[in-house]
Amino acid sequence: MDASSSPPLTAPSTVAVELAGITKRFPGVVANHDIHLSVRKGTVHALVGENGAGKSTLMKILYGMQKPDEGTIAVDGEQVSFSSPADAITRGIGMVHQHFMLADNLTVLENVVLGSEKLHGIGAGARRKIKEISDRYGLGVRPDALVEDLGVADRQRVEILKVLFRGARTLILDEPTAVLVPQEVAALFANLRELKAEGLSVIFISHKLGEVLSVADEITVIRRGTTVGTAVPAETTPRQLAEMMVGSELPTPETAESTVTDQPVITVENLTVHASGGASLGPEAEPVGPGSLVEAAGEVKKVLDDVSFTIHAGEVMGIAGVEGNGQTELIDALIGTKNADSGTIAFLGEDITPWPTRKRRESGVGYIPEDRHRQGLLLEAPLWENRILGHVTEAPNAKGFWLNPKGAQDDTRRIVEEYDVRTPGIDVTAASLSGGNQQKLIVGREMSHNPKFLIAAHPTRGVDVGAQAQIWDRIREARREGLAVLLISADLDELIGLSDTLRVIYDGRLVADADPATVTPEELGSAMTGAASGHLEHVEEEAAPEDEAR
């Protein structure tokens, strides 16, 4: 590893992108200070750092979304100045954002073509090009699907396709593997190697340091807004990278004893949810893989099919599955934002199936949503108002029937301190925070109400290794106090490391159980795609709910 803050410039003929001395200031904070980054042509260059370290700001500058206060940008050896993303796109730079830039009410084809109509047209030519790119890179994208009907993983594939459609030669990928299973990650990495072989360059931003080391040719580490070092994957380890990111040694994790009790907290029996509110789809609908809306021509698809389980006090039950196999519908049914077509949900022995969302929340159901921007935050509202969301009737946000702004403000300051939310103050908007700091605010908000049952959907998506460990510790601490947790995550290491019981969902059904102590991510990934595994116990069709509980 090289700990120099200003790496020497690479020979211009081999450089795709060069950032030199980049500095960007915002009111109350310096996001970037004298950043240096050199990306060689035909390589994958990883950029790592803690949440709030300045990675996203730096990439927004490269993509023309913001202008630097100081420093220069060079593309293919020529100094450039971008006033908008259109300028960057013209120079062959494309960006897949951590939070998607898609119009929900448009189709995949319309989203991909939007703003690029002159490239391949808007009809048959565009459709052929989309299919060609989708097939080549195994994206499995359906041009006529509405984006609002897509899961998180499919949305990300659309974003990647959109960049490739525009002919990008340098791709910025911000957390591209956050929702992918191991097989999908391996396929993506194979595609990146193909792009490298064709002379394209990739800037790869990720908090999954093992993946960074496996795919990157070079790694740049930034900390607190400045470059602190470079690393060569063959000469470093994930732990060394993490310590470069945080500036100190990481503690060694302790082995925790089981906290599972015999007290049921949440009991789900025979829960079934139909697609699109039970609407039947016409015979022209295109059949697709698991998680699709179509079972056969003219039939209604059960997106959640006869699901039963029990989670006990002190237990984390993890659910592993490829996005779109019923996880979202299960969450919606549990939190009360979608009614189940059949089945029951009991909370601490009481049937809550007919309860509205607010009553469930007030009774002790916590919720970390899978998409923090769409479901967890008001981005243009200050942090203290976001503290109130989902808990508007509860202390310290309310006194009797009235809101209590001071109580919410004081408690937001506590959350900011306890959860290390990097912010200049509680009056800044949620949009001004990095993704990881937004996530820490949401976790702090939900844990502050001492829930008895926590729905945790991708709780550490997009957070750095230090924040991830902190969130895990908070969940483990609450579990020791009797919290029951439903954990849904695309991070298989997270599922295996946190879960007491682990189940696999496929095509809307719980199809297998896994022992977190023995299962490997590869075995779990295979089961998620429908393949059998010798270390997983497959659930029998006729199993009674009590037999499926653990």
UniProtKB/TrEMBL annotation:
InterPro entries: AAA+_ATPase, ABC_carbohydrate_import_ATPase, ABC_transporter-like_ATP-bd, ABC_transporter-like_CS, P-loop_NTPase. This is ABC transporter ATP-binding protein. Keywords: ATP-binding, Nucleotide-binding, Repeat, Transport. The lineage of its organism: Bacteria, Bacillati, Actinomycetota, Actinomycetes, Kitasatosporales. Residues 526-550 are annotated as: Disordered. Residues 539-550 have a biased composition (Acidic residues). It comes from Streptomyces galilaeus. Residues 17-249, 288-532 form the ABC transporter domain. Coiled coil: none annotated.
